[in-house]
Amino acid sequence: MATQVFISCDTELSALLYQRGASGRANFDASITGRTTRGDFGIGWQMDRLEEHGLKGVFFVDPMPALVHGRQIVADIVGPILSRGHEVQLHIHTEWLDFATTNPFAPLSGHSIADFPVDAQKDILALARDLLVEGGAPKPIAFRAGNYGADGSTLRALAGLGIVWDTSLNPVYLGSECRISLPRETIHATPHCGVTELPVSTLYDRPGHLRPAQVCALSSREMSALLNHAAGTKQAHVMIVCHSFEMLSRDRQRPNRLVMDRYEALCAHVSQHAALESGEFSNVNSDVTGTATHLQPNLLRTGWRYVEQAWAQARYERS
C-alpha cells in the first residue's frame, strides 16, 4: 500500500493583525486570500497547485475569529475549500477568546487549549466544532491545536466529542507548547488518550536535532528525501504542515517565491512517485506496519537549506 502524504494547511486569521487594528476583511485578505499587489497567494493558490497535480489538501480551519468578526467569516473560508473537493478539519487558537465581546469562558484565558482546565477544554472545543459546522463544514473527525499546544486532557476531550484523529504532536515542540505524553521518536499513527495521534513528520537535519516537515522549514531536497525515505521504508503516513499565509513574506506584503517553489516541488514529487498518494482523514490507511525510522542527517543537504534561506531572506523579506 502506498504511503499517504497529508499536505495539511493551518488556515487561520492572525491574532497579531487584529491586535494591530486590522479589520476582519483586511485580516482575511492577508491571512486567507494571501492578497498582495502581485496577486493572491493564499489557500486559493495552494488549491490550484494541489489540483494541477491531482492531489487533495487537508485544511485545518480555525473558527474562533467568528467570536470577533461574526460567523460569516468562517463560511467564507470553508465554502471555497469544500466546493473544490478538499477536506476541512478543526483547528483552534484560543487567543481569540480574549478579544471576544462576550467570552463565555471568562475569566479563564490561555494562549493554547492545554492552558485551560479539563472541563473547559471540552466546552471550548465543542464551541469551536459547532462554529465550524455552522460555517458549512461536515462534523470534523480530526484536530490540530494552535501552537501545537495540546495535552492528554485535550485528546480525551476530543474523544468525547467524537473527533478520533489528532495531529497536534509536533516532536520539535515537545517539552514546550506541546504537552502530549508520547516519545519524541513517535512516527507512526499511535492510539493515545482515546484518539489516534498522527504526528507531524520530522527528520534529523543534524545529529540529535529534529526538523519539522513544514514547507517553510525544509528545502525541496530535504522534503524529497523525507518522502523517498518514507516510501522506501513503507511508512503508512507522512504529515506535512503549511499555513494559509505561508507563501508570503513575513509582513505579508509580497509573495515568497522560494516557499512557493518548495510547495510546487512537493506537489509534483507526491504526484509523480508511484509509492506515494494524497492523504485525507476521510480515507486514512490504517496499516502501520512499516519500519518507520527517521531520516538521518546529511550535512550537505542541510547546508544547502542554509544557503537557500539566506538568499530568500535577502530577496523576499526586505521591508
Beta-strand level of the residues, as a percent range?
15-25%
Please work out how many helical segments DSSP would assign: 10
List unreliable stretches of 5+ residues.
none
Helicity range: 25-40%
- Which fold name corresponds to the CATH topology? TIM Barrel
Give the terminus-to-terminus CA distance: 47 Å
Average residue-wise pLDDT: 93
CATH superfamily: Glycoside hydrolase/deacetylase
Major sheet size, sense and barrel closure? 9 strands, mixed
What's the CATH first level? Alpha Beta
Strand tally is 13
Order of helices and strands: EHHEEHEHHEHEHEEEEEHEHEH
Helix and strand composition category: alpha/beta
**Total domain count:** 1
Shape: globular
Query: Architecture, according to CATH?
Result: Alpha-Beta Barrel
Keywords:
17% strand; two-stranded antiparallel sheet; TIM Barrel; alpha/beta; 319 residues; 10 helices
Provide an overview of this structure.
With 319 residues, the chain is an alpha/beta fold. The protein has a single domain (3-316), classed as Glycoside hydrolase/deacetylase (TIM Barrel). It has 10 helices and 13 strands. It has helices at 15-19, 24-33, 43-52, 66-69, 72-83, 118-134, 152-160, 220-232, 257-272, 299-316, and strands at 3-11, 35-36, 39-40, 58-61, 87-92, 142-145, 165-166, 190-192, 195-197, 202-206, 209-212, 237-243, 276-278. Strands 1, 4, 5, 6, 7, 8, 9, 12 and 13 form a 9-stranded mixed sheet that branches. Strands 2-3 form a two-stranded antiparallel sheet. Strands 10-11 form a two-stranded antiparallel ribbon. A hairpin with a 2-residue loop joins β10 and β11 (209-212). The chain is globular. The model has no long low-confidence stretch (mean pLDDT 93).
